Amino acid sequence: MVTGKRTSLFLAALFAGLVSTVGVAEAGKPNIAGGCKKCHTAQPETVRGSLGTVSQDFNTLQVKVGKLIWIVKYDDKTTVVKGDKTIGADEIAKLPKKKEILVSFTGDESKPLATK
Asked: Which of 20, 23, 95, 112 is most buried, judging by how many CB atoms fall within 10 Å of its CB?
């Protein structure tokens, strides 16, 4: 009889844990920094925050969104729009750190690839 109660309690706890993690998985990572929310709204397949480190060795850039840091890969097809000019991916490393940026990407949030 005690075993049945323990099993029921275990199953109830397991179910509660599964339900709570499903909600977290659907919520996703925040993709817009707090300061950006004053003028902009979150959009799918974009991340808006401040530029962190750029690694030309690994073709990645970091975008800081509050306490979270997105690591976004880029390739030769990635373009950089700076004002009314469009430049190539080789210019990404020249962008100033802590500059507010918007990165559009393909793929999902676990392996984003910058398009622009």
From this structure: 112
Dist. CA 40–CA 43, nearest whole Å: 9
Cα 110 to Cα 5, 12, 29, 45, 72, distances in angstroms: 40, 31, 9, 11, 9
Contact assessment for residue 32 and residue 48, using Cβ atoms and an 8 Å cutoff: yes
For the chain, how far is it from start to end, CA to CA, in angstroms?
Answer: 63
Mean pLDDT of the chain: 84
Judge whether 22 and 64 are in contact, CB under 8 Å: no
For 58-82, the pLDDT digits (tens) are 999 999 999 999 999 999 999 999 8
Closest CA to 68 of 113, 110, 29: 29
Q: Domain residue spans in the chain? A: 1-29, 34-114
Q: What does pTM read for this prediction?
A: 0.73
Which pairs from 38-41 meet CB under 8 Å and 24+ separation? Answer: 40/102
